[in-house]
Specification:
single chain, Pyruvate-ferredoxin Oxidoreductase, domain 3, Rossmann fold, eight-stranded mixed β-sheet, six-stranded mixed β-sheet, globular
């Protein structure tokens, strides 16, 4: 057996993977570990790889501790909690030499690797002594590895108890689970007493002050509440359901009337088609309306998306992306809906798409998407992904919306009296956006009937070719307006950098770390993170300013690269692609290696 002395010490810079069975209660154990490490002031995040079923199939939860604050998926994980005998042999094979394996010593599996330090934990005995009812002991078993890890790597037991109190909130389950943790800690500490110190250790830092732990779906839901959402029509789908669940949690707490009644409506529709249809109606009536879905739901929404685009009705659709085509891999992450969503709808349709890259931006775009939708009078699609939406991330505390709600060109009765006329799709400002009225406006000029068929600028049915062309030209001007109105790219230019990297969304975590790896090898890079479609002048300028451009994205066909090539046709040949999707978040070593190969 390899001993701890063979491995160099790594303080606050390593990763742990807990391999368990889905539905076994391991999520509580894993979140307890993350929260305890976080409250020790150490940067940490967690990524859950879970199956698309209810219970019993394998699941893996990776916890990365990074004193430098890196948050991408680690390429190497030296500590394995092998609590699933079905996958234990494969999990052990992935462990690097010098790694550590914790496993149930009273289970059916034994590790057989002389270059790994193994600890057989007496799971059944420790749980049986805990006071848990027999029917709950299988769930309590995961707290054994929490206590063992606490002793092994130095997690403060007081912080673990505080994390349990945060999760359970009631004394009895806190006491029972804390009892198992402390018993396992004592058992592990006794075994470690006669060995060299574990090379993977935690030491308190002050790097999490002012930070929070949250997943992107919860952040998006909270942002939508701050943005004034008043209608939610949705249909369950992985990995977007928890966003709707978040709205159902926050709205009763934050958005009730003084008499206790709700100031909002949440409707579970019969399918995604109906969900977007409800949004179109609510948006036309003046409500701030939204839904959450994923790729298959986006496909079903195509016809209503075209109606919203052509009738010019604001609403917000969150697409928490997963792997496709078809049902694909519902519990794996992807950035594969970019092109299909941008051109969603038949005919000459181009949608507005926002691309959050952090949980803080999920919160921001949660409210900002409504402003964009109402200013442009169009559906706005927000493309998150499973990694960002369902995993736990550290973030600075969220910033309150930067001003009052921007409702756009909505005419009041006083406005209509002053103007003396109302032409729904007139475009005097040249920005492609006409003025609108809302139901309930008492002025006799306010009435309008929106339609998805051909119409003239007065919104009167028309099949005249000149009217159609004029309408489409105006919608084109609106799209040009959108280029400047949507969130602009975040750009980090480095002096002397001839290579520019472009990415979007959650891939920034791996790209940022990869840039540091490339710099260590003498390759300096600039970086642009695209935050919205349509692309604008900053994207064109970034491409022009660099001799070579590489687009890194989590899909198979390089969809963002294709859109950049359409946007910058004169420089299309210099735009290369690192596009890859196996359902897992990108790792920094993979990104840096692929970029070096492309040079």
């Amino acid at each position: 057996m390899r001993t701890h002395t063979d491995t160099p010490a790594q303080v606050n810079d390593f990763a742990i993977v807990a391999a368990t069975a889905n539905g076994s209660g391991s999520q509580t154990a894993n979140n307890t570990i993350i929260r305890a490490i976080f409250t020790m002031g150490i940067p940490v995040n967690g990524k859950n790889l879970f199956p698309s079923n209810i219970q019993g199939e394998p699941t893996w939860f990776t916890i990365r501790v990074s004193r430098d604050g890196y948050t991408s998926r680690p390429a190497h994980v030296p500590i394995l909690v092998a609590f699933n005998p079905r996958t234990a042999a494969e999990d052990l094979a992935a462990l690097p030499a010098g790694g550590i394996c914790l496993y149930p010593g009273d289970g059916p599996w034994r590790p057989e690797r002389p270059d790994v330090t193994s600890y057989p934990l007496p799971v059944k005995a420790l749980v049986a002594e805990s006071g848990f009812e027999p029917r709950m002991r299988d769930y309590a078993a995961n707290m054994v590895y929490v206590g063992a890890l606490a002793a092994l790597i130095g997690i403060d037991l007081a912080e673990i108890r505080a994390a349990l109190e945060h999760h359970f909130g009631k004394p009895k389950p806190v006491e029972l689970n804390d009892g198992v943790v402390r018993a396992a800690h004592a058992w592990m500490a006794e075994r470690l007493g006669c060995q060299p110190a574990c090379p993977y250790r935690l030491e308190r830092m002050g790097a999490t002050a002012g930070q929070i732990l949250i997943d992107g779906n919860s952040a998006a839901a909270m942002g939508a509440v701050f943005g004034g959402v008043s209608f939610i029509g949705w249909y369950p789908i992985t990995p977007a359901t928890s966003l709707a669940d978040g709205l159902a949690y926050y709205l009763p707490r934050l958005r009730t009337n003084p008499d206790g009644t709700a100031s909002y409506a949440i409707v579970q529709a019969e399918d995604e088609i109906a969900a977007l249809g409800m949004l179109i109606g609510a948006g036309w009536a003046g409500a701030r309306a939204m839904t959450s879905t994923s790729g298959p739901g986006i496909s079903l929404m195509s016809e209503f998306a075209g109606l919203g685009y052509f009738a010019e009705i604001p609403c917000v659709v969150w697409d928490v992306q997963r792997v496709g085509p078809s049902t694909g891999m519902p519990t794996r992450t992807s950035q594969g809906d970019l092109i299909s969503t941008y051109f969603l709808g038949h005919g000459d349709t181009r949608q507005v798409v926002l691309l959050p890259g952090s949980v803080a931006e999920c919160f921001e775009f949660g409210w900002r998407a409504f402003d964009v939708a109402e200013e442009l009078q169009t559906p706005v699609f927000v493309l998150s992904d499973l990694d960002l939406g369902m995993n736990m991330w550290m973030s600075p505390a969220f910033s309150y919306p930067d001003g009052p709600m921007r409702r756009g060109k909505v005419l009041s009765a006083d406005d209509l009296s002053r103007l003396g006329r109302f032409v729904r799709f007139e475009d005097p400002e040249g920005d492609g956006v006409g003025a609108r009225t809302l139901p309930g406006n008492p002025h006799p000029l306010a009435a309008q009937l929106s339609r998805g068929t051909g119409h003239n600028e007065r919104n009167v049915y028309s099949e005249r070719p000149a009217d159609w062309v004029a309408n489409m030209d105006r919608l084109g001007r609106k799209h040009e307006t959108a280029r400047k109105l949507v969130p602009q790219p975040v750009i980090d230019r480095r002096d002397g950098a001839e290579l520019g990297i472009i990415g979007m969304g959650s891939s920034e975590a791996a790209i940022g770390e990869a840039r540091d790896l490339l710099r260590a090898q003498g390759v300096e890079t600039s970086f642009m993170r695209v935050r919205a479609l349509p692309l604008g002048e900053p994207a064109r300028a970034f491409v022009e300013d660099h001799a070579r451009v590489i687009v890194v994205e989590l899909n198979h066909d390089g969809q963002l690269r294709q859109l950049l090539q359409l946007h910058c046709p004169a420089h299309a040949a210099r735009i290369q692609s690192v596009a890859f999707n196996d359902g897992l978040p990108l790792t920094a070593p993979f990104v840096s290696e692929k970029i070096l190969e492309a040079l």
